Amino acid sequence: xxDSPLSASPYEVLGVSPSAPDDELRRAYRLxxxxxxxxxxxxxxxxxxxxxAWELIGTPExxxxxxRTRGSDTEWNGxxxxxxxxxxxxxxxxxxxxxxxxxxxxxxxxREWAGDEIDPYAPAVVGRAPRxxxxxLAAALAEEGTADxxxxxxxxxxxxxxxxxxxxxxxxxxxxxxxxxxGLMSAxxxxxxxxxGGEITGPSLGTLAPVTTLLAQIRGVARAAKVRxxxxxxxxxxxxxAMAVTPLGRIRDLPAVVVRRSALPSLLRAGxxxxxxxxxxxxxxxxxxxxxxxxxx
Length: 297
Known about the structure:
Helix Hairpins; 10 helices; 297 residues; two-stranded antiparallel ribbon; 2 domains
């Protein structure tokens, strides 16, 4: 979970300086466990973060390894654009490029903030950047991760990435296949999330309402392309969810779920429970309407 540019570092989670002695680190860990334990009124999401922080820096050896790879300007390839793929298996028909809009915006804002000479993906630079910039990078990485996950769905599916929504929004992904037509949001909130009243909650979300936003984006694309969607899916990093798939029920007449990225292909092949299946001539008609009606952000 600390691989996300939006995540707090394990030192921040434990409330100590990166230069704190080992015995101070241990005391801070025990204190934070007591403070955040759900049995004493703490938040389960934060309690899990504390445990994972200790797993990263709890021994001198682990701490040294973490400091080498995250605390310096050593290149962290996970924040850079993915390498060219060499997989030759049949793939879905795909339109658009995931993460391009957000990466371009991130790089432009990083140059404004830190100058033209810096490497915008150096870990030390990313770690010092304002939260809004780190959020942009995390969102771009989430888009790219989801695109990689669905790239192996097969020839029966059609994918659109970075779909424009008026006036200046974006639906991250549209997936059409035998199980239905789905609108997907790729997100990374930098930590474990919970759920309340059909919405995603967590210590890092603030006033964000991802499910409400996704449903509005889906309605925009549905109006523009004159199609009916089967379901809404929010895709999160695996470590941020306790369950592979969390159904949120029907919201504004669409079944909505939150899914771990690794479980997404299986979900799309099987279909979301309660989603309207699209088949036969209708599948062909919906694909034609989407090709004509979709524009890219």
